[in-house]
Amino acid sequence: EKGGYPSFMEKEINDQPSAVADTLLGRADAAGKLTLDELRIDPEELAQVSKIIVLACGTSAYAGQVAKYAIEHWCRIPVEVELSHEFRYRDPIVDAGTLVVSISQSGETMDTLMAVRYAKEQGAKTLSICNTNGSTIPRESDAVLYTHAGPEIAVASTKAFLAQITATYLLGLYLAQLRGNLFSGQIKDILADLGKIPAKVQDVLDRADQIKELARSMEDAESVLFLGRHVGYPVAMEGALKLKEIAYIHAEGFAAGELKHGPIALIDDGQPVFVVVPSPRGRHSLHSKVVSNIQEVRARGAKTLVVAEEGDEAVRDYAEFVFYVPETPTLLMPLLATVPLQIFACELATAKGYDVDQPRNLAKSVTVE
Ligand code: F6R
């Protein structure tokens, strides 16, 4: 059942092209019009929402953080992303104009379920993005958008994450379509770019050996830092989480812009730092800012491990190691850039002799607080 792979985690990493493709399947017609009929929520009501709150834990919350960039950009609706267990115990402002989007692979995470119940009580509309048919959170929500990643067995989430990002993007595009924020041609173009993601993920997987070799050479690493900006920031957090949970290595992800506000003090000789570099074709000159960050940490002795877009030659001079991902629009980059970080963690944990599918102290569904 592991499909010839040594672990479920490795299998599930390799399942990601179909996890994304299956999540996209049947959600738009030939003209590029989204038809999320399964949502069971009145489109007119949905078009009226004034605020979105995304609730989730762990990896699913990082998918939510990625979604914020896309949904705000496309729909011009404010999106807050909050950990379910933090949301529950403050006094959040939720009303009938709020759409609460929960993201949960299992659909059983107690904190997220309780947060959804609380939001419902406050009169919010609740929409669940979930990978498990008929599980509790989608059953208790007003609407559901299933990710079609297939069952995820390994404790560490991989293919569900890519499918969650894909599903939130479909939701964002659907809202933009309902509200008229984007022209139909724009939506069609973005859907076409999303449609190319599975083949691009496959391209990354086909070059997994590059990153595996790096991982095996870093078996003795005591701490690994990850930095990114914009959508690369949650990718950095996710890369760090994967390494903590299966390789038991101290890892921290942070926003590259925060370096000077503290984290740069951590850098000394030989400190490995992964840097997720935005596309040089993107807006806001973020690329050059991140390249400066690479130079800054390198000047202080860091071992710089870079994930960049194909054709980005500017990073080569400052990187100990570069992994190139195929070109894609900036907002879609997390669907590619996360994959080498998953492979890195999986291979490093394997090299250390750990059971990557069953990391210590962790359970697949966290059904207790
Ligand atoms: C990390 C991981 C966890 C889950 C989190 C939420 O690899 O698997 O952080 O993402 O426990 O679980 P779900 O998505 O089932 O609510």
Quick structural gist:
With 369 residues, the protein is an alpha/beta fold.
Summarize the topology:
Layout: H1 8-14, H2 16-24, H3 43-47, E1 51-56, H4 58-75, E2 79-83, H5 84-87, E3 98-104, H6 110-121, E4 125-130, H7 136-140, E5 143-146, H8 159-179, H9 184-195, H10 197-206, H11 208-217, E6 223-228, H12 232-247, E7 250-255, E8 272-276, H13 286-299, E9 303-309, E10 321-325, H14 334-351
Helix pairs in contact: 2-8, 2-10, 4-8, 4-12, 8-9, 10-14, 11-14, 12-14
Bound molecules: fructose -6-phosphate.
EC number: 2.6.1.16
Subunit structure: Homodimer.
Enzyme class: transferase
Explain what you see.
The protein is built from 14 helices and 10 strands. The chain is an alpha/beta fold. α4 (58-75) links the parallel β1 (51-56) and β2. It starts with 7 loop residues before the first helix and ends in an 18-residue tail after the last helix. Bound molecules: fructose -6-phosphate. Fructose -6-phosphate binds at residues 57-60, 104-106, 109, 112, 156-157, 241, 245, 365-366.
Round the mean pLDDT to the nearest integer and report it.
95
Shape summary: globular
State the helicity in percent bands. 40-55%
Which strand order does the major sheet show? 2-1-3-4-5
Tally the helices.
14
Distance between the termini: 32 Å
Small-molecule components bound: fructose -6-phosphate
Give a short account of the largest sheet: 5 strands, parallel
- Calculate Rg over CA atoms: 20 Å
**Total strand segments:** 10
Sequence of secondary-structure elements: HHHEHEHEHEHEHHHHEHEEHEEH
